[in-house]
């Protein structure tokens, strides 16, 4: 490093020489340092002022929401071509089933019939205590739903057959 001190101007000059490159020589004169600091400061101020202009400030007041424009389309109205008259003034049906499974001991039955607004039917099943429960019911608009429940003991309790263990 070569250092020069000039007494007449009272300036200190520091020059660095790279031993690998004999032509490269950097001299840091105080005037050059001040000029470089001013250039860096001006560049930083310019960049910050330009970037500040790109950002909008946060809103400080309340504003109502923007109205959303929706496309207008008239509502489609469904038109009935002709009224369908499928009302049956005297509905009638009848069904029945009976299950007697000796393997599982399941025993139940049901039957029901309807004529107009009157429904009559009955069902039966075997309760866990071994009695048969029989329910007979009727329903009509005048009296509503009425059920009569009766219990009959069975002669022998039906138990499920044991299942052989598979090994």
Automatic annotation (TrEMBL):
It comes from the Eukaryota. Keywords: Cuticle, Signal. The keyword Signal applies. Pfam families: Chitin_bind_4. InterPro entries: CHIT_BIND_RR_consensus (IPR031311), Insect_cuticle (IPR000618), Insect_Cuticle_Struc_Prot (IPR051217). The keyword Protein transport does not apply. GO terms for molecular function: structural constituent of cuticle. One of its GO terms (cellular component) is extracellular matrix. PANTHER family: CCP84AC-RELATED, STRUCTURAL CONTITUENT OF CUTICLE. This is (African queen) hypothetical protein. It comes from Danaus chrysippus.
